[in-house]
Amino acid sequence: AQSVTQLDSQVPVFEEAPVELRCNYSSSVSVYLFWYVQYPNQGLQLLLKYLSGSTLVKGINGFEAEFNKSQTSFHLRKPSVHISDTAEYFCAVRSNTGNQFYFGTGTSLTVIP
Amino acid sequence: DTEVTQTPKHLVMGMTNKKSLKCEQHMGHRAMYWYKQKAKKPPELMFVYSYEKLSINESVPSRFSPECPNSSLLNLHLHALQPEDSALYLCASSQEIIAVPGTQYFGPGTRLLVL
Fold this sequence. Notes:
Chain A has no helices and twelve strands. By secondary structure, chain A is mainly β. Chain B is mostly beta strands.
């Protein structure tokens, strides 16, 4: 079985500062990793995904994430955040043997002016 | 086009009502999903349809009844709901090809309030 841990439930950060949202996973098989963003009263929007190949993945809105197999991590980063980045961020994992996603508990990012 | 549409956007219903949520995608995806999401919580998987057949039912109460009339449509029929069923209901779809992992694309959700 797979599981995802997002250690930080809330992350406040000042505008134009860098941010890292942490995600760790556990799995006995190969996995695919995703980050989704959810703005208030909206559905989930795909930010980026790691399927294979380069461990550094670039996504939309200036976000990137690095897959680290030895540390079983997939942390999300942005060098300079904007007010509009205030949202809930979910890390998700999917195994290579099924179509079920497992979501982390989410991290609420608040960008402070 | 990576759009999944859901109707209605908002729904208020009594505990004796029957209503349906609708989801549509035209991306050629053959897997479709229903999730329930409570405030400040991650989505909880309810049902998965693969090639129009129900493949996963996460022990969802029978007052929720999914239906997949064709490869583009997914319905969720609601009957005799409880106030604790109030939540955001999300639909998602993904492309299912053997050995190719499908990314799930989500709709905007239907916010349901049961009185």
